[in-house]
Amino acid sequence: MTYKNRPWTTIENHLRTNYKIVGEVDLYHACTDPLQVHQALVNAKQQHYQPEDKILVYHYDTEYYYSKNAVGVGLYNFLSSLHALDISPSVCMLLTNHYGIAKEIDNFYKEYYPKHDYINDCVQVIESNYQQMQTPVTVQDTNIDIDQIVYPYICLSGIKRPHRMLFLCLLKQANVLDQGLTAWHFAHNLDIDDNPVPKLQINTAPNCQFITTIPSSRICEWKIDNKQHQQVWQTHHGFFESNYKNPLIQGLPNEKLHRFNIPAVSKSFLYIALETTFDYPYPYITEKTFRAIIQKRPFVVVGSPGSLKQLKKLGFKTFDDFWNEDYDSMENHADRMNAVVDIVKQISSMSVDSLKELCYNMQSIIEYNFQFYVNEYSKTKLESLLQNLK
């Protein structure tokens, strides 16, 4: 099988130069079709592996977690196949954008195979967000352009997810939806009452047991259980059952190539990153957040707990000197969302001149984040990572 559009082109090419790749596994399929992953490992199995022999494992999509401390369904299926086929974990190099997977794999062996010496025979986990479209090649330096600011915020939403729609409903409830630049693509049906929690089902293969879900799922969609939020949803969600884009939100030709150059971002003060995940055990940081850094705007993140903490671990700065970022540590999803909405309401109550002055006071952080991204995060730190992979 040939995998297209692999996220980590630079890292993968480096590994192919320094190792003999004897197999590839894409965990995108592990939640929905574990037998496909199992067969990929069957094809990669050898009687004896040489030190330079490696199996590349791609883990770039979301997983379904059936409880707070559970192992992700896809990862569980992959590791179960690995054990059933008696393939040493040390042969595998797993590329992931989940920060915490190494500990999760360790917990898997402690729970299911405690006799396995995972300290000395473990999967090599490479945690990174160095994805194909997030490199200096596609990033152009621009001015902060404070004088361009006309709107308090910009909020771009792609695939319909409960947390994204509810966030927009809350903005509408607060009468600030019309003050910012917004876009959403929600033209297919979604109703919280008809969005059942997937049930687990057990599937078997020779010497192996897999887990899948009914209905099929690779993500933990937030089941909105806060009564106030349910009421807001019922009042406003019909307004968003459509596709909408403010006419001012236009990208450059070839939007995928220029995903970090949307002119409307410069017309707004605050960038709201509506991330892929919300009810999720890991910070799942994508281009939705990095766009704010690259286009030089302050930001808030509507995402998993610990997203800002992870950005800081990576070396970036956030804006806790200017508003309360305690929302990042709130495990209660309703409280976390309300706290972000409060920041947007606060920003939306300010005059354009006040927003420009605030942005001026943030210039050092904004410029630092951009320069750090280009010169350190996606260059020096990436080069250091590659050196350590030899």
Describe what this molecule looks like in 3D.
With 390 residues, the chain is α/β, with parallel strands linked by helices. The chain has two domains: 9-132; 136-209 and 220-374, Rossmann fold (3-Layer(aba) Sandwich), CATH 3.40.50. Helices cover 36% and strands 17% of the residues. It has twelve helices and eleven strands. The chain has helices at 9-18, 34-44, 73-84, 101-112, 162-173, 227-236, 263-266, 287-294, 307-314, 333-348, 352-361, 363-388, and strands at 20-26, 53-59, 92-96, 124-127, 151-159, 181-185, 199-205, 208-214, 243-245, 268-274, 299-302. The strands form three sheets. It has a five-stranded mixed β-sheet with strand order 9-6-5-10-11, with helices on both faces. A four-stranded parallel β-sheet has the order 1-2-3-4. A two-stranded antiparallel sheet has the order 7-8. Strand 5 (151-159), helix 5 and strand 6 (181-185) form a beta-alpha-beta unit. Helix 5 crosses helix 10. The radius of gyration is 22 Å and the shape is globular. The two termini are 26 Å apart.
